[in-house]
Amino acid sequence: MAETLSDFQVPHPGAGLVFLDHHINRYSTRRGCRTTIPLSMHLKHSDHEHGPPIVPVTFILEEPEMLTGTKQTEWTLMGGEHESVLELAMEHGINIEHACGGVCACSTCHVYVEQGMASLTEATEAEDDRVEEAPGIQRNSRLSCQCEIRGTGPIIIRVPAWNRNAVKEIPH
Length: 172
Hints:
five-stranded mixed sheet
């Protein structure tokens, strides 16, 4: 039986069978080669239609290589009404953590809304309860899975450097 998560073997596209390292988002092959890989996570998409992508949403990434695999720290995207900040980010390759699949059951998708809070839905009591569990909580803290675009923007979202999960699940 495996004693640590680093003993678990999982398949990964393009890398074959890999061994997960639970301390960092890395894997090693049987040959001992170690590298960072973006492991995808499952996301529950909203049940309703999104409006046309007309709202500018800028993401400022404190640790861009872990979230996108690039050094680009700022991404300006166009979002639609009723689209969550998490959905918008994930659809454009910004891999914000969301261990619960985006259903407000954890705080791993915690972000800071630097501008445009009035262009997002208000936080629910359930979201407020979860945000309190996140490290580095501030007055502008929100869960990206719960922030739906409702205004015209612009919206600026800061994704903190510590926003990552040590082990990401690979959907079946």
